[in-house]
Amino acid sequence: xxxxxxxxxxxxxxxxQNVTFRCDPISEHNRLYWYRQTLGQGPEFLTxxxxxxxxxxxxxxSDRFSAERPKGSFSTLEIQRTEQGDSAMYLCAxxxxxxxxxxxxxxxxxxxx
Amino acid sequence: AQRVTQPEKxxxxxxxxxxxxxxxxSYSGSxxxxxxxxxxxxxxxxxxxxxxxxxxxxxxADLNKGxxxxxxxxxxxxxxxxxxxxxxxxxxxxxxxxxxxxGTRLKVLA
Lengths: 113, 110
Prior knowledge:
Helix content of chain A: under 10%
Oligomer: heterodimer
Number of strands of chain B: 11
Number of strands of chain A: 11
Strand content of chain B: 35-45%
Structural class of chain A: mainly beta
């Protein structure tokens, strides 16, 4: 599968722990997005990278959240001191410069207990 | 406010019946509109976009700027159309981030 890849697919963690998710976009895509999806809702935008630069962050992205894309390839999303409200599906998407069509990964489902 | 509204959480139709999934949007400017579909245990994938004006898997959607709607239609539903459908919009410049609706689950009954 040469699409967007996310790891892990599932993560269960105790409240207060830190977690990190990884996203590998389609190789030639320079744009990378993170979205969060909670039960019964559509995906909500969290943050956007163009190459290695993080160009936009949603107000949903509290100080406990940090995202990086160090070499303009894969990206990581870290949540510190997880809370039960962080339980959600975290989706990564990528696209080509100047193209509006985004390709999504299968997501990482986070459960905070 | 920028918003996408899908008023139906669940739509059940019989096989062979027509389908219409509703989508209305609010956006200051001229967005691009999309329909994404998620089949069971699969990732979100693009179904169609308004600028291509294609018919994919028998589905069509016409952008009505006056009514700010982008309803998805299919004349004869098939069982394999059962899935979650999301309407989304994107700006045509800048980040191209998506604003999604809450989704409609389509169930096609035999």
